[in-house]
Amino acid sequence: MDSELIQALADGEFHSGETLGNVLGISRAAVWKRIEQLASVGVDVERVRGRGYRIPGGVSLLERSRLQQGLASIMSVDVLQSTDSTNAEVMRRLAVNSPAPLAILAEHQSAGRGRRGRSWSSPYAGNIYLSVGWRFPVGAPRLEGLSLAVGVVVAEALSANGLAGRVALKWPNDIWVHGRKIGGILIELSGDLEDACSAVVGIGINGRLGSGAAQSIDQPWTDIYTELGDMPDRSALAIDLLKRLYDMMSGFPLDGFGSWMARWAALDALAGQSVQVVTASGAVSGTATGVDSSGALRLCTDGGAEMLFHGGEASLRPASMGIKGKE
Ligand code: BTN
What we know:
alpha+beta, SH3 type barrels, disordered C terminus, binds biotin
């Protein structure tokens, strides 16, 4: 990643090709080439004839030492310029017995993973991509509802960092602002699922998505930049989020999702609304009526039956999106 060029453009002001060339000690043609490379990893660089290049709004990179110091007493932290997927990187580190909990953050993911086998758009230096590796002394059944509790933690962290009153959760764990997705969660378990297992909790938050990356997203989306008109301090947000995550995950094996249910319900975007639940065997329409103590979705079907759905098997959408609407 071209952190030298990014730093030269970080202030959001215009810089001529000549000035950039002088700063970097390269020709104007070489500057242009490196600008093209930035664009290819999703950085929006604007070029205006006679004025030069700029990154509208500027950019600030994640600060490794600030993150490490801020979290030193609770987990080890690494910040990478680029990786395939922070979830995959944490899994690799857990597999070679790295001490846990550990957090990996990246400025860019070349193969970011979403739920249900989808990809997660991961342009450079605008968003948050982080994963936490955790070894639990309990098996997977005791972790039911963990991903919903993570959703609460992310929503509360965003609320505390400028988005109060705007953040909601769409079951099982999409983070929404006014019906548009601003973040998502992917949890991957490994080890002995009946006894002691490891969890990788992956969180993606749109800080500033950029026009190129946004084109590949097939559902309504938003980002912090759009909502607040300013770039978030991503390091501060990540530190706050990781502290909250640590507190929640330390207590989860004992507390379970039951103790998070009320907080989840307070953020439920679709409670009482007409929805469709899509499963492998088809779509069921009804009214969403919240979640139970395991995190399963309660649906009162149009036929009047009560049904429960678990996160791995179903996805939810508001009925207003119609049958062709995306998840
Ligand atoms: C979703 O589909 O809503 C879940 C998206 C999860 C994305 C995050 S970004 C950090 C971590 N690394 C990945 O490859 N995926 C998760």
